[in-house]
Amino acid sequence: MRFHVMTLFPDMIMNALGESITGRAMAKDLFSVNAVNMRDFANNKYNHVDDYTYGGGAGMLIQPGPVYDAYMSIRENIEKCSGKSKKPRVVYMTPTGKTFDQAMAQEFAREEDLVILCGHYEGIDERVIEEIVTDNVSIGDFVLTGGELPAIMIIDAVSRLIPGVLGSDESAVYESFYDGLLEYPQYTRPPVFMGKEVPEVLLSGHHQNIEYWRLEQALIRTKERRPDLYKTYVENNKSKLEKLIKKGKIKLEL
Ligand code: ADE
Predict the structure, then answer these.
(1) How far is CA 134 from CA 1, 4, 17, 33, 113, in A?
(2) What is the CATH code of the structural domain delimited by 176-246?
(3) What is the pTM of this model?
(4) In this predicted model, what pLDDT tens digit does every residue of 136-151 receive, in sequence order?
């Protein structure tokens, strides 16, 4: 998979993703990130890409020209790599977009090329957004200074779904079984920390009981912290959960 990020701060993108798991995966060519500096497409000697907003108001707006030219250079690059000339999916990071979630990450992971457009200042001229953007995406109900951190988050969440990026295939198993629940608590050595012991079942070696315990803990945690997710999970898994409760495998009131 190839990510193409349209930004005024390419180092922010490359420095963050060059570390740790994503960095190692890129070194292994499991995916690539191409951060394109829209300033390189400015058409004035000062390399300015922003200007005042028509109608007044505070702040500067990124002009449509450099955004469009950067987009076209990415399309050329994609065509060279893939041999195909189809319009790529272009995700604009904006607090006015649809909220990003795991289902969206899975959908994006099916793309061969994903273009991510990062705004800065007060945003981008609407006409070029209408022309090139396929998805408006927010990472939550708060406003950041730019789309770079959101873009890094999207690439992180999508790239870990690419086969081989995570060291083991454990995550896929985890996701199918616990899909829609928050993760259960986990423990490592030492067995006693500040007087607190690791739950006994985890030391038992009894894999089935450990699975039941983890499901129970995930349910308890989700019910407490994210009642919205809990409600949906119980609706979708009612008969399975009722059976487990009846058999005494998990202790919980639905
Ligand atoms: N740019 C600024 N704030 C943002 C947010 N919450 N999500 C996506 N892009 C943004």
Answers:
(1) 18, 14, 24, 19, 13
(2) 1.10.1270.20
(3) 0.93
(4) 999 999 999 999 999 9
